[in-house]
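Long-time lurker. I teach an intro course on protein structure, and each term I like to show students one example going from raw sequence to a predicted 3D structure in token notation. This year I'd like something fresh instead of my usual example. Would anyone be willing to generate the tokens for the chain below so I can use it in lecture? Attribution to the forum is fine with me.
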Amino acid sequence: MADYTVNTFSKSNKKDQKGKKSWFKGLKAEFQKIIWIDKQTLGRKIIVVVVISAMICALITLIDSVVLQFIEFIIK
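-- Reply from a regular --
Happy to contribute to a lecture. Here you go:
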């Protein structure tokens, strides 16, 4: 009985390895389909993201300070 269990485990382990190999082959094929951008475009996009993030941060800070002043005005 123990031998049967060990053999079953070995067979299922081989099936899992085949499934993993085919999954990694599919993953590799999908990565080859990706169109990677060049460094210049990447640099421009990074700058845009940083600038927009800074603008949103400034806007949130401005709104927060106005709301705090309004609340202090109401309380006093």
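Some talking points for your students: The mean pLDDT is 84. Residues 7 and 20 are 20 Å apart (CA to CA).
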